[in-house]
Amino acid sequence: MTAEDRLRDEIAKCRRCEACRELVDTACLVFSKMFSLVDEERDKGRKILREDLFGLVNLCNLCGICPCRDIRSAILDFKTDHMDRHGVGLRVRMLQGVERMGKLGCTFPNLTNAMLDNERARGIAQDILGIHHDRRFPRFPKQSFDQWWRHRGTVVKSGKAEQKVAYFAGCTARYLFPEVARATVEVLQKNNVEVLVPEQQCCGMPTLLEGDRRLTSTLVGGNVERWADIVDQGYDIICSCPTCAYMLKVVVSAGAEEHKLQQLLDESDGDTVD
């Protein structure tokens, strides 16, 4: 079954079920659009085209509000299939490169902010990236969280640490809103928690949402490889970013479980697995 066929099959299941139609009608852009398409197909005979499906899946930000994991998986498969066919365009590549853009902006914050304050320069950037002209850009701080942390280091302010945590700050807190990451560290240390901020890269959610599963796998694999040793040393992993936390706790965990299941099936050599 192709990715498109699978998505159409899941949409057909949603049409027959509709249990969450009212639940997500106002909270989820995907389901409201999906039911609009299926109603139009049923009432007016207008077939749902592949272009309609692509527009539909681009509305999904993997928030997890829908109770059916199958539809989320089908959406991601369709996105990945589309990106494999047509490639990741420059606009998408730039938007999903949150860490790369953050590093660049924080390297020359005064220059970057001056350019974004200039109406003409900002308009050009918005046209290139496909961002609405009314959308405001965040200002880049003079000191990123990474720079602040390098000067601070792992310090427990008073007495012996009662707990050890490894802090996954996330790209936006590291480069755009460092006050959030700094406050997180300071609150933890104030409460006698030892804080470690290991080397880290993007959690992979931006690339996953765009269907760039290969790059997502590289990012996730790099983080897991680094952080596995840290967990073995007795550190608990914490996040202040809900998106990073959801990616690490739910998406990566689910992917790992599916991988384990596939390994088990392969090792069974055709035997039934209960």
Summarize the structure in words:
With 274 residues, the protein is mainly alpha-helical. It contains 15 helices and three strands. It has helices at 3-17, 21-24, 29-44, 50-57, 69-86, 90-96, 98-107, 109-117, 119-129, 145-152, 171-175, 178-190, 205-209, 213-232, 242-268, and strands at 163-168, 193-196, 236-239. It has a three-stranded parallel beta sheet with strand order 2-1-3. Helix 1 (3-17) packs antiparallel against helix 5 (69-86) and helix 7 (98-107) packs across helix 8. The protein is globular. The model is unreliable at 268-274 (pLDDT under 50).
Q: What percentage of the residues does DSSP assign to strands (E)?
A: 5-15%
Largest sheet: spatial strand order: 2-1-3
User: What is the helix tally?
Assistant: 15
Number of strands: 3
Distance between the termini: 25 Å
| Main pleated-sheet profile | 3 strands, parallel
Task: Please give the share of residues in helix.
Answer: 55-70%
Alpha-carbon Rg, integer: 22 Å
Shape: globular
In short:
With 274 residues, this protein is mainly α. Helices cover 64% and strands 5% of the residues.
Helices and strands in order:
Blueprint: H1 3-17, H2 21-24, H3 29-44, H4 50-57, H5 69-86, H6 90-96, H7 98-107, H8 109-117, H9 119-129, H10 145-152, E1 163-168, H11 171-175, H12 178-190, E2 193-196, H13 205-209, H14 213-232, E3 236-239, H15 242-268
